[in-house]
Amino acid sequence: KDGYDVQMTTNHLSHFLLTSELMSCLEKAASRTGEARIVNMSSIARKGKPLKPNTHLGKNGGNLGGNGNWFSNAFFFSPAWERYHQTKLANFVFTYALHDRLLAKSSKVKSVVAHPGVASTNLQVTTASAGNIPFANAIVGMGMSAEDGTVSLLQCISEKEVQSGDFWGPPGSGFKGMSEKLTPDADLITEAQKKLLWEESCKAVGEFNV
After folding, report:
1. The pLDDT of residue 118
2. What is the Cα–Cα distance from 191 to 207, expressed in whole angstroms?
3. CA 159 to CA 192: how far, in whole Å?
4. What pLDDT is recorded for position 134?
């Protein structure tokens, strides 16, 4: 009803707003215990077209191409897949836009990000049943269990050596494997992308002053 894409609202804008609302509490916790962490969950789907103004982050819900057809969905270039990609890219860029701001104020709050690889969860079951990725079940069958897919997230939450700006997940193609600390994709987190993400997100949910 507010005009924003449902998937972007669910996967990114709501997280941006929640983080903003909780920031003062996180700062208090960090001052008391030595640290606090904000952990975002991205995806191998983060890779693709960059964020653009007045598109997926704007008031364009219902006007972003529909769900595509069998062929475009099967080969991951449908509008539905692009909407998902944009949300996972937003999670990734948000992590580093927030990290920069926390670093600038010498905050003890850490902003980190994980990707799970391909894990067998109800997300893929729903995607397959909706016809948005016809081969979803077969692809997931070549990936990991849901439990193994949580490892990178648990590392970001609990590993003592985790630092703000860290990125954890299965290495290489990212499809499967034991999670480890990874090098962030520099081309995805340019200054321009971080600035755009922050400005568009603030337009949607209100100012976020770190």
Report:
1. 84
2. 19
3. 31
4. 53
Mean pLDDT by 10 residues, the chain (210 residues): 90 98 98 98 95 89 62 57 93 98 98 91 61 57 82 97 98 90 98 98 96
pLDDT of residue 30: 98
Given a contact cutoff of 8 angstroms between Cβ atoms, the answer to whether 67 and 79 are in contact is yes
Q: How far apart are CA 207 and CA 210, in angstroms?
A: 10
CB 51: neighbour CB atoms within 10 A? 18
Using the CB atoms, write b or e for 188-198: b if 16+ within 10 Å.
bbeeebbebbb
The three-state (H, E, C) secondary structure of 60-75, written as one string: CCCCCCCCCCHHHHHC
Contact 169, 95 (CB under 8 A): no
Only one residue has tokens 């990290």, namely 99
> Residues 6 or more apart from 73 whose CB is under 8 A from it?
67, 80, 81, 131, 132, 133, 134
Contact 155, 166 (CB under 8 A): no
Assigned token pair, 191: 């200054």
Residues 6+ apart with CB under 8 A from 102: 109, 110, 111, 164, 210
